[in-house]
Amino acid sequence: IRRIDTPSLLLHTSLRLASLAPNSSPLSHPHPIHPTCTIAPRTTVSADSLLGPNTSVYQHAIIKNSVIGANCVVGAGARLTRCVIMDDVDVGEKCQLVGCVVGQRARLGKECKLGEGCEVQPGFVVEEGTEGKGEKFMVFEGLENDGDEDDGGEGMDEAEEGEGESLSFRG
Questions:
Q1: Closest of 164, 157, 114 to residue 138, by C-alpha
Q2: 3-state DSSP call for residue 15?
Q3: 0.85 exceeded by the pTM?
Q4: How many CB atoms lie within 10 A of CB 149?
């Protein structure tokens, strides 16, 4: 038994399991596309993909060799290839994702282009039109100025209102 403790290992293992034919192994899924999924006309979902319960896929979306969790929305014209999308994720219209791992409750704005190796933290909102490759999108909490340093008495400004800084960095 091997522990799956990195995003790249999770991606590789999930895609390997998704490629198993239904009922060919105790680890294969009996229904690669859950019966409660809503898939619009003129949409392509490859046979080596898995779609979880209550997931909606809109027109002209293309999903290849990907695993998509429960209660997700894949917007019109989106393209997902070799991705793992966790539960409750909203992928915006015309997003292009390749080799990405997207955490629970994340939101990807329209026309995002995330390439091989991108990771999106659970709950993170990726702004419309964002492009990246090999980046980690996450919220850093606790980076706000705590007022102890001599900053001219100005203290915190906008950082007080939010839950933390939204940053991405290249891995």
A1: 164
A2: helix
A3: no
A4: 8
